[in-house]
Amino acid sequence: MKDLLKYLIPLQPMIKKAMGEWQHGDKGYCITHNESYLYDYETNSCCCNKENILIPLTIDPVNPKRGLWGMLEGAKVLKVYANGSVNLRVLVEGEFEKYYEADTPTEAILKALCHQWEVEVK
Ligand SMILES: [Zn+2]
Description:
Number of domains: 1
Bound molecules: zinc ion
Helix content: 10-25%
Oligomer: single chain
């Protein structure tokens, strides 16, 4: 998860817009304490109570638009090969097809979202 922070941090404004309010059971990450936790209405996030990183599910089966896969627009196909490599193909209307390669499906989708939302990640 930590290696994905380089995508998740710059994408936070768009992710939070797509997900809306924090919901019971959402996964958060506290940069100060370097740990993840599950958001709970009662305990209200990490003990330090700072603005934390909201970590979406890769696919949210209950509310698809709150998951990374649902945030990615256009026709898309994600393939995971036997050797473990991942290839994501996205076709956005009026645009050329784009390919994203990564070590995990989540990383491939995050790369595509960076492109979709014009966020540059080194
Ligand atoms: Zn904390």
